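Severity: low
Component: inverse-folding endpoint
Summary: output formatting inconsistent between runs
Steps to reproduce: submit the following structure tokens with default settings.
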């Protein structure tokens, strides 16, 4: 499948980048998204960069046959925990257990034989031949999967054994999804080829066009949810998928929408919001702040889009589900906002010489993490209303401004009067304050502080030389 191959190449390209290059790319993409620039694919790239940054060890690259076998699944893969259900999508972490099951229990001899044949074809440079071998293997694997699932459906003991062999929490559903996509890979690929590669504006005309393609009889009704997943991957904002549901119902009423087959589109968007919230929580837990501002923006836009597109006034299951998600984000933001000023003060609090270890400096990782937190809280100000943290954010930001404004002058004075033992620490404090001020007051303000820092540092070095 062409789209899957492109995503795989992008994934490998990002993996091969140096860490500094990935960090620069991540920062630039986040700034662009927060400025509201149209950047097709930016959210996908940021998600992949965050995933790779969390995984410090190089990912094990699967064998050629495994990559070709799972390639048609690429448009439907989601980087999430296996227990969260994403209609029409497959958790990436389930692929390795399924491949191990196939290699060990389902068709071990054939896996070994075709793996060797595919590797030999690649060695000879026969890419097309390798793909033909993989396609034939896919067809045979689908047949064997179907037989295994049919046997499990008719025998409880067989079902338990099969679930144990596969080893994922939703084993039968996972295999069924993989089997369905592989069985219909050509139909799904053809459907994807008829959609625009990137749908920038999902207005009434485009919504009607996409609905017509989805409702076409090619592939049958079993492909409906997978067509929705492909369509969602092409949208500028995934939450816009719910427009298919409201247009199909001819109403924004939850009851009317729930009566249509497109109601599953709403569940797909909910699952994506839940995934993003979990990812935001994981990123904030690390303290690195990896493009968390852009992630918060995506969550905010999806929640607001849900409330705008659907009438959630009534006490419906969707209303309660969205309210619970908003509360999760609110609690998450409150913890970060409330801890901001304590972290800043812990780093740059002016302190007597007796509290400073000779020749010590601030931990630069701690400074970077705090700088990232300041950026995140700054982004929170734009989205605070949706999550009911406006007053808290405004209060914390005003306190931060006042503290930086009054403390930096004292830090500069302390550096001017520093001696050989405490000079390096006080310089690192002022340097951290300059970085923080750049995030809070802007670069022009920070540049003025840089001059004050340099002057103070020069004074400290002269005093040290005289001593």
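Observed output (run 2 of 3):
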């Amino acid at each position: 499948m062409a789209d899957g191959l492109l995503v795989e190449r992008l994934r490998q390209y990002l993996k091969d980048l140096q860490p500094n290059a990935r960090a620069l790319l991540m920062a630039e993409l986040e700034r662009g998204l927060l400025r509201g620039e149209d950047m097709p694919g930016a959210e996908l790239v940021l998600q992949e960069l965050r995933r790779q940054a969390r995984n410090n060890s190089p990912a094990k690259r699967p064998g050629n046959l495994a990559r070709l076998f799972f390639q048609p699944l690429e448009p439907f893969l989601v980087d999430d925990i296996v227990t969260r259900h994403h209609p029409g999508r497959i958790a990436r972490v389930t692929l390795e257990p399924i491949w191990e099951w196939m290699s060990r229990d389902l068709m071990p001899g054939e896996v070994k034989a075709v793996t060797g044949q595919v590797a030999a074809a690649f060695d000879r440079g026969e890419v097309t031949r390798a793909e033909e071998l993989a396609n034939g293997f896919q067809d045979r694997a689908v047949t064997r999967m179907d037989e295994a699932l049919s046997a499990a459906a008719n025998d409880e003991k067989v079902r338990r054994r099969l679930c144990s062999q596969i080893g994922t929490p939703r084993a039968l559903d996972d295999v069924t999804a993989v089997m369905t996509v592989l069985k219909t890979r050509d139909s799904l690929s053809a459907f994807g080829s008829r959609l625009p590669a990137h749908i920038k504006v999902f207005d009434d005309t485009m919504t009607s066009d996409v609905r017509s393609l989805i409702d076409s009889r090619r592939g049958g009704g079993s492909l409906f949810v997978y067509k929705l997943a492909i369509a969602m991957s092409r949208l500028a904002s995934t939450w816009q998928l719910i427009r298919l549901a409201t247009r199909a119902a001819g109403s924004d009423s939850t009851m009317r929408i729930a009566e249509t087959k497109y109601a599953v589109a709403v569940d797909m968007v909910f699952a994506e919001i839940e995934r993003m919230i979990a990812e935001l929580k994981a990123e904030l837990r690390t303290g690195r702040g990896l493009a968390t501002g852009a992630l918060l923006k995506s969550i905010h836009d999806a929640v607001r889009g849900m409330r705008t597109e659907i009438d959630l006034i009534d006490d419906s299951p969707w209303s309660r589900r969205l309210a619970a998600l908003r509360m999760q984000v609110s609690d998450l933001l409150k913890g970060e906002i409330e801890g901001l000023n304590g972290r800043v003060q812990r780093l740059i609090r002016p302190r007597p010489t007796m509290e400073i270890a000779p020749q010590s400096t601030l931990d630069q990782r701690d400074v970077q993490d705090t700088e990232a937190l300041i950026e995140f809280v700054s982004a929170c100000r734009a989205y605070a209303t949706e999550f009911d943290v406006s007053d808290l954010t405004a209060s914390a930001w005003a306190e931060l401004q006042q503290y930086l404004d009054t403390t930096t002058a004292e830090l500069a004075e302390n550096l001017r009067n520093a001696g050989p033992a405490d000079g390096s620490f006080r310089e690192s404090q002022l340097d951290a304050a300059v970085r923080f001020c750049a995030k809070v007051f802007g670069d022009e303000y920070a540049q003025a502080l840089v001059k004050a820092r340099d002057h103070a540092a020069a004074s400290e070095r002269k005093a040290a030389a005289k001593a």
